[in-house]
Amino acid sequence: MALGFAAAILCLAATVLVTTRLEAARDEQARLVQHTTETLLALEALEAAHRTAALSVDAHVEGGATWERELTQGALDRIEPLLQRAGRLVSDEEEQAARFRELAPQVRRQAERVRASLEAMAQGDQPGAHAVLHQMGLASMAPIDELFRALVDSEATLLERRHRAWRRASVTGAAVFALATAVLLGLILLAARRVGTEIRAREKLSAERADTLALQQQLMAIVSHDLRGPLAAMKSTAALLARSPSIDDGHREDALRVVSNARRMERLIRDLLDFSRIRAGHALPIHPGEADLVELCRSAVSDLGRDAEGRVTVEGRGPVTGSWDRDRLEQVVSNLVSNALKYGPALRPIRIVVDGTGGDVLVSVHDDGGGLPPEQLEAVFEPFRRAVAGDAQETGSVGLGLYIVRRIVEAHGGEVTVASAPGAGTTFTVRLARRTAPAAAPAAAGG
Q1: Which pTM was predicted?
Q2: What does the domain layout of the chain look like in residue ranges?
Q3: Which of the four, 102, 126, 265, 310, has the lowest number of CB atoms within 10 Å?
Q4: Cα 243 from Cα 251, distance rounded (Å)
Q5: Burial, 197: exposed, middle or buried (Cβ in 10 Å; 0-12, 13-18, 19+)?
Q6: Is the separation of the CB atoms in 183 and 11 below 8 Å?
Q7: What is the sign, positive or negative, of the torsion defined by CA atoms of 34, 270, 335, 383?
C-alpha cells in the first residue's frame, strides 16, 4: 500500500508538471489566436472608416447634406487612431508590417484629400471640392484596396494556422493527460479512492476549460471575419441607395430600414464580442483621449438613426470634457438609449443630461416609462436578463447591453446606477472621473 501510494504521488507530480507545461503552451497559442483576431478587427474597422469617408464625402459634395459631412468627419476622426492601433498589432509580423508601412501613407493622403474637399465645400467652392475628389478616383483607390485585402487575407491565413496550432496543443495535452490519468488511476485504486476522485475532477475541469476556450475563439473569429465585413458593405450600399435621387419614397424607406437594422446588428455584434472577451477573463481595451461628453452623446444618438430621431434630447451643464475612451463611452450611451427605446413607452421623450458641475461628471439617461420593480433594479445588469416594465413592449434583445455598460464604466474606474419608480420613470446614471488611467484593470470574468 505504501509503495503504491508513493508511486501514485510520483505519478501525480509528473502529471502535474507535464500538463502544466502543455497548458502553458496551449494558452500561448490561444493568446496568439486572440492577438490575430484583434488585428483582423482593427484592419477591418480601419478599412470601413476609410471607405465610409470616401463614400460619404462624395455624397456630401453631390448633395451637400449636413449629416453627410458629419458622417465624413466622424470617419476621418477614427482613421488616425485606427492606423496607430493596427500598426502596433501588425508589428510582430515582418511581412504584414511592411505592407502596413506601405498602406498607412496612402490612407493618410486619401484622408487629407477628403479633408481638403470638406474645407472646399465649407467655403462654398464646389468645383474645388470636385477637383480634389477627382484625385480619389479608381486609380488611387485600387492600390489601397489591394493592400487592405492582402493584409486581411494574410491575417485570416495566420489566424487559421495559429488556430490549428492551438488545436494540436490542445489535442496533445488531452492525449498526454489521458494517458497519465490512466496510469495514475491504476495506482490510486491501490492507494486511496480519494486521489482517484481528485484526478477525475481535474480531468473534467480541464476538458471544460478547453471546450470553453475553443468556443470563445471560434465565435470571435467567425463574428469578426465573416459578419462584420459583409455587414459594413450592406450598410454602406443601403445608405448610398437612400441618398439616390432616382428611387421613389417607398424604396428609400426600405433602404433606410436596412441601414437602421445594420446599425443594430453592429451594436449586437460588438456586445457579443465584448461578452466573449470578458467571459474569457480578458480586460476590455480602454484607450483614453480628450473627449466632450455632450458632443459624444449627440454622436451616439445620431448613430441610432431614425429610432431616436425626435425623441432624444441632450443637455449639458458645466464643463463636460475629460480623458475617456470616446468609442467605448459612445457604446455606453448607445446601449442605454437603445434600452430606453426598447423598454420605455412608445413616442415618450428620452432625456440625456451631462452634469459636469461637480468633481466627477454624471451622465443620466431618463425615460418616462412605468418603472421597474425594486427586485429587478440590480438584475438588469446581469447578462441575458431583460427586466420589463409594465408598459414596455416585447423585444428581440439578448440582454447584454446593460451588462456591457457596467463593464465599460467599471473599466473607466466609474460606476453606473439605476433608479426607477412607478410614475417617475427610469433613470440610469453613469459617474465618471475626469481622467481615466491609460491601462484599465481587467474586467472580472463571469457575472
Answers
A1: 0.47
A2: 2-230, 289-432
A3: 310
A4: 11
A5: exposed
A6: yes
A7: negative
- The tens digit of pLDDT for each residue in 63-105 reads 666 777 788 788 888 888 888 888 888 888 888 888 888 888 8
Architecture (CATH level 2) of domain 289-432:
2-Layer Sandwich (3.30)
Question: Treating both helix axes as pointing N-terminal to C-terminal, what angle do 126-134 and 94-122 enclose, rounded to 10 degrees?
Answer: 160
C-alpha cell at 308: 431616436
Residues of the chain with confidence (pLDDT) below 70: 1-16, 18-19, 22, 60-65, 133-140, 184, 186-196, 213-214, 216-226, 228-229, 385-398, 437-447
pLDDT of residue 391: 46
Alpha carbon distances (Å) from 387 to 23, 190, 303, 399: 40, 55, 25, 9
In a 10 Å sphere around its CB, with 0-12 CB exposed, 13-18 middle and 19+ buried, how is residue 228 labelled?
buried
- Using CB atoms within 10 A of its CB, is residue 4 exposed (0-12), middle (13-18) or buried (19+)? middle
Q: C-alpha cell of 251?
A: 424604396
User: How many residues are listed for the chain in this entry?
Assistant: 447
- Degrees (nearest 5) of the Cα angle 126, 130, 136? 150
pLDDT of residue 222: 64
Find out whether 359 and 384 touch, Cβ atoms under 8 Å: no
Residue showing cell 451643464: 317
pLDDT tens digits, residue range 278-321?
777 777 888 999 999 999 999 999 888 777 878 899 999 999 99
